[in-house]
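haha ok so turns out i had the wrong file open the whole time. this is the CORRECT one, sorry everyone. sequence first:
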Amino acid sequence: MKREELLHLKEELKKEIEKRERIKELLQENHVQELITLTSTDYSKFIKDDYELLLKILKDYKVTNTNNIYVATSAYYTELILNDGLKNIYHYVPIDSEESETKNYVNIESGLLTQAWISEQAYDKRIVTSEFERNNIVLNPYNKSDNNNGYEEVRRDFFENTLKYGEEESKKLLLEKYPRLES
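then structure:
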Protein backbone atom coordinates (compact mmCIF):
# COMPACT_ATOMS: atom_id res chain seq x y z
CA MET A 1 0.00 0.00 0.00
CA LYS A 2 1.16 3.52 -0.63
CA ARG A 3 2.57 5.57 2.23
CA GLU A 4 -0.29 8.07 1.90
CA GLU A 5 -2.81 5.24 2.20
CA LEU A 6 -1.21 3.98 5.39
CA LEU A 7 -1.20 7.50 6.85
CA HIS A 8 -4.85 7.88 5.86
CA LEU A 9 -5.75 4.58 7.54
CA LYS A 10 -3.92 5.62 10.70
CA GLU A 11 -5.74 8.96 10.76
CA GLU A 12 -9.15 7.36 10.17
CA LEU A 13 -8.46 4.77 12.88
CA LYS A 14 -7.48 7.54 15.30
CA LYS A 15 -10.81 9.29 14.61
CA GLU A 16 -12.75 6.06 15.17
CA ILE A 17 -10.90 5.41 18.45
CA GLU A 18 -11.77 8.93 19.60
CA LYS A 19 -15.44 8.27 18.78
CA ARG A 20 -15.30 5.01 20.72
CA GLU A 21 -13.84 6.76 23.75
CA ARG A 22 -16.56 9.42 23.58
CA ILE A 23 -19.21 6.71 23.42
CA LYS A 24 -17.71 5.12 26.54
CA GLU A 25 -17.93 8.47 28.32
CA LEU A 26 -21.55 8.97 27.27
CA LEU A 27 -22.47 5.49 28.45
CA GLN A 28 -21.54 6.54 31.98
CA GLU A 29 -24.13 9.33 32.10
CA ASN A 30 -27.36 8.68 34.02
CA HIS A 31 -29.70 9.70 31.18
CA VAL A 32 -27.94 7.42 28.73
CA GLN A 33 -28.03 4.54 31.23
CA GLU A 34 -31.75 5.12 31.70
CA LEU A 35 -32.29 5.14 27.91
CA ILE A 36 -30.35 1.88 27.57
CA THR A 37 -32.43 0.27 30.32
CA LEU A 38 -35.76 1.51 28.95
CA THR A 39 -35.03 0.41 25.39
CA SER A 40 -33.14 -2.79 26.27
CA THR A 41 -30.36 -1.61 23.96
CA ASP A 42 -27.27 -3.76 23.64
CA TYR A 43 -24.61 -1.08 23.94
CA SER A 44 -21.74 -3.56 23.57
CA LYS A 45 -22.13 -3.33 19.78
CA PHE A 46 -20.91 0.29 20.02
CA ILE A 47 -17.65 -0.67 21.73
CA LYS A 48 -15.42 -2.25 19.10
CA ASP A 49 -11.77 -3.22 19.33
CA ASP A 50 -9.22 -1.44 17.16
CA TYR A 51 -9.24 -4.14 14.49
CA GLU A 52 -13.04 -4.06 14.17
CA LEU A 53 -12.77 -0.30 13.70
CA LEU A 54 -10.11 -0.81 11.04
CA LEU A 55 -12.31 -3.34 9.20
CA LYS A 56 -15.11 -0.78 9.20
CA ILE A 57 -12.73 1.72 7.58
CA LEU A 58 -11.39 -0.81 5.06
CA LYS A 59 -14.91 -1.81 3.98
CA ASP A 60 -15.29 1.49 2.11
CA TYR A 61 -11.63 2.04 1.28
CA LYS A 62 -9.70 0.78 -1.72
CA VAL A 63 -6.06 -0.10 -1.07
CA THR A 64 -3.90 0.29 -4.17
CA ASN A 65 -0.39 -0.88 -4.89
CA THR A 66 -0.53 -3.95 -2.65
CA ASN A 67 2.42 -6.17 -1.73
CA ASN A 68 0.79 -9.00 -3.71
CA ILE A 69 0.46 -11.13 -0.60
CA TYR A 70 -2.40 -13.60 -0.83
CA VAL A 71 -3.82 -16.40 1.26
CA ALA A 72 -4.86 -19.49 -0.67
CA THR A 73 -8.37 -19.79 0.76
CA SER A 74 -9.63 -22.93 -0.98
CA ALA A 75 -8.81 -25.61 -3.51
CA TYR A 76 -11.22 -27.95 -5.24
CA TYR A 77 -12.06 -30.03 -8.25
CA THR A 78 -15.41 -30.17 -10.01
CA GLU A 79 -17.42 -33.24 -10.87
CA LEU A 80 -20.08 -32.89 -13.54
CA ILE A 81 -23.25 -34.91 -13.02
CA LEU A 82 -25.48 -35.43 -16.04
CA ASN A 83 -28.34 -37.50 -14.53
CA ASP A 84 -31.04 -34.84 -14.12
CA GLY A 85 -29.47 -32.14 -16.23
CA LEU A 86 -26.06 -30.60 -15.77
CA LYS A 87 -24.96 -30.27 -12.17
CA ASN A 88 -21.57 -29.28 -10.74
CA ILE A 89 -20.39 -30.84 -7.49
CA TYR A 90 -17.39 -29.17 -5.86
CA HIS A 91 -15.01 -31.38 -3.91
CA TYR A 92 -12.84 -29.30 -1.57
CA VAL A 93 -9.36 -30.66 -0.93
CA PRO A 94 -6.28 -29.53 1.00
CA ILE A 95 -4.76 -26.42 -0.57
CA ASP A 96 -1.61 -28.20 -1.75
CA SER A 97 -3.49 -31.26 -3.07
CA GLU A 98 -2.53 -32.65 -6.46
CA GLU A 99 -6.27 -33.25 -7.04
CA SER A 100 -7.23 -29.59 -7.12
CA GLU A 101 -8.05 -28.03 -10.45
CA THR A 102 -9.08 -24.62 -9.10
CA LYS A 103 -7.74 -22.45 -6.29
CA ASN A 104 -9.04 -19.26 -4.74
CA TYR A 105 -6.69 -16.60 -3.39
CA VAL A 106 -7.55 -13.46 -1.43
CA ASN A 107 -5.28 -10.42 -1.25
CA ILE A 108 -4.68 -9.55 2.41
CA GLU A 109 -4.61 -5.80 1.80
CA SER A 110 -7.40 -5.23 -0.73
CA GLY A 111 -9.56 -8.25 0.15
CA LEU A 112 -10.00 -9.01 -3.56
CA LEU A 113 -10.50 -12.61 -4.66
CA THR A 114 -8.56 -14.16 -7.53
CA GLN A 115 -9.39 -17.55 -8.96
CA ALA A 116 -6.88 -19.65 -10.90
CA TRP A 117 -6.98 -23.00 -12.68
CA ILE A 118 -4.42 -25.78 -12.99
CA SER A 119 -4.10 -25.17 -16.75
CA GLU A 120 -5.17 -22.66 -19.36
CA GLN A 121 -7.29 -25.26 -21.11
CA ALA A 122 -9.38 -25.94 -18.01
CA TYR A 123 -12.58 -23.98 -18.54
CA ASP A 124 -10.77 -21.72 -21.02
CA LYS A 125 -9.50 -19.46 -18.21
CA ARG A 126 -6.48 -17.21 -18.37
CA ILE A 127 -5.02 -17.34 -14.84
CA VAL A 128 -2.96 -20.46 -14.21
CA THR A 129 -2.20 -21.51 -10.62
CA SER A 130 1.51 -22.13 -11.18
CA GLU A 131 2.02 -18.69 -12.77
CA PHE A 132 -0.04 -16.96 -10.09
CA GLU A 133 1.87 -18.67 -7.28
CA ARG A 134 5.20 -17.91 -8.93
CA ASN A 135 4.39 -14.19 -9.40
CA ASN A 136 2.87 -13.53 -5.96
CA ILE A 137 3.47 -14.34 -2.32
CA VAL A 138 0.90 -17.01 -1.48
CA LEU A 139 0.52 -18.05 2.14
CA ASN A 140 -0.96 -21.38 3.20
CA PRO A 141 -1.48 -21.14 6.99
CA TYR A 142 -3.39 -24.39 7.65
CA ASN A 143 -3.55 -26.16 4.27
CA LYS A 144 -7.35 -26.42 4.62
CA SER A 145 -10.15 -25.30 2.38
CA ASP A 146 -12.43 -24.57 5.32
CA ASN A 147 -12.51 -21.34 7.34
CA ASN A 148 -10.78 -19.58 4.42
CA ASN A 149 -7.52 -21.25 5.47
CA GLY A 150 -6.87 -18.65 8.16
CA TYR A 151 -7.25 -15.61 5.88
CA GLU A 152 -8.81 -13.38 8.58
CA GLU A 153 -6.04 -14.24 11.03
CA VAL A 154 -3.34 -13.38 8.48
CA ARG A 155 -5.08 -10.16 7.50
CA ARG A 156 -5.45 -9.10 11.11
CA ASP A 157 -1.77 -9.79 11.80
CA PHE A 158 -0.77 -7.83 8.71
CA PHE A 159 -2.76 -4.70 9.52
CA GLU A 160 -2.03 -4.69 13.25
CA ASN A 161 1.70 -5.09 12.60
CA THR A 162 1.65 -2.55 9.77
CA LEU A 163 0.07 0.06 12.04
CA LYS A 164 2.60 -0.68 14.80
CA TYR A 165 5.85 -1.36 12.93
CA GLY A 166 5.36 -0.34 9.30
CA GLU A 167 4.65 -2.32 6.19
CA GLU A 168 8.08 -3.84 5.55
CA GLU A 169 8.40 -5.19 9.10
CA SER A 170 4.84 -6.49 8.96
CA LYS A 171 5.58 -8.34 5.72
CA LYS A 172 8.70 -9.86 7.27
CA LEU A 173 6.75 -11.01 10.35
CA LEU A 174 4.07 -12.64 8.18
CA LEU A 175 6.61 -14.55 6.14
CA GLU A 176 8.24 -15.81 9.35
CA LYS A 177 4.94 -16.86 10.92
CA TYR A 178 2.98 -18.41 8.05
CA PRO A 179 4.13 -21.04 5.55
CA ARG A 180 4.15 -20.19 1.87
CA LEU A 181 2.37 -22.35 -0.64
CA GLU A 182 4.91 -24.37 -2.55
CA SER A 183 4.08 -24.59 -6.25
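The two ends are 26 Å apart (CA to CA).
again sry for the mixup
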